[in-house]
Design brief:
Distance between the termini: 42 Å
Strand content: 25-35%
Structural class: alpha+beta
Number of domains: 1
Largest sheet: 3 strands, mixed
């Protein structure tokens, strides 16, 4: 697959990761895939991960317990 990503988007993603740490950020590429596996109109998006709600967190912790 091939994609061209704007430098501005890349710099924003790097800055977000540097400020918050790699474990707190999710980065993904979105766009339209052409028939020849080229990602057209590609955009790089970086977002902070949001903590799970208390009820979901309790269910996940309960599932991890032996």
């Amino acid at each position: 697959m091939f994609a061209e990503v704007a430098t501005k988007s890349l710099r924003r993603a790097i800055t977000t990761i540097a400020e918050h740490g790699a474990d707190s950020v999710i980065v993904f590429v979105e766009g339209k895939l052409s028939p020849v596996n080229i990602l057209q109109d590609a955009g790089l998006v970086s977002r902070l991960k949001t903590p799970a709600p208390d009820s979901a967190r309790q269910l996940m912790e309960a599932a991890d317990e032996p």
